[in-house]
Amino acid sequence: MKWAGWLIKNIEELVAGAALVVMVSVTTVNVLCRYLLRSPIRGAEEVAVICLVWSTFIGCAACYKNQSHLGMDFVIGHLPERGRRVAQQLLCVIQLVFFLFITAFAAQFALRAEKTTPYLHLSYFYLYISVVLGFFSMSVHALRFLVLSFRRPEEYDRIFVKKQGEEVEER
Fold first, then answer.
1. How many C-beta neighbours within 10 Å does residue 27 have?
2. What domain range is 155 assigned to?
3. Are 95 and 142 in contact (CB under 8 A)?
């Protein structure tokens, strides 16, 4: 059962990493086949693009979960400690609303997908659903961060609110 908890905790990293591995592997094998055997793998580019889309949106969720995105905190950094926490909480609310909006919009878009890929004839639904899952995951993490800011403010401050002249703790 420990592995199930680990799997759930790291699902974004695993999916994004697997998509990257498949993308690089398919592209490498396709290049080798094209130049050595003079016969490329049909549909390889489509598989690589699908994997790129999945690694992008699910990887974005993994970065958000780990707070690995770059941010500009010039204004927030000049606020008093309490003001930094409130500003971070407000930012978290704005992000949550934005992520939920994109999730809903992308879900509608995915459910209406009629187009298919040229060679493999896969529905674009399978590309668009990665956007839904990525933004839904970011919504879950934004909500988790927001709840953390009220339930355990010390832990939240350690992760998000840096004191004057110090770096935010790496996770």
1. 17
2. 2-160
3. yes
Q: Is residue 90 part of a domain?
A: yes
pLDDT at 166 over 90: no
- Average confidence score pLDDT of the chain: 89
Q: How many other C-beta atoms can be found within 10 angstroms of the C-beta atom of residue 75?
A: 9
Residue 168 lies in a domain: no
Give how far the C-alpha of residue 35 lies from the chain's centroid of Cα atoms, to the nearest Å: 35
Residue 170 lies in a domain: no
For 105-158, the pLDDT digits (tens) are: 999 999 999 999 999 999 999 999 999 999 999 999 999 999 998 898 888 777
Tokens of 13: 């990293």
Q: Is the pLDDT reported for residue 70 higher than 90?
A: no
pLDDT digits (tens, 9 = 90+) for 3-38: 888 888 899 999 999 999 999 999 999 999 999 999
In-domain check, residue 80: yes
Whole-number Å distance between alpha carbons of 85 and 76: 9
CB atoms within 10 A of CB 37: 9
What residues pair up with 123 in beta bridges, in sequence order? 116
Instruction: Compute φ and ψ for 123, nearest 5 degrees.
Output: -65, 145
Number of structural domains the chain divides into: 1
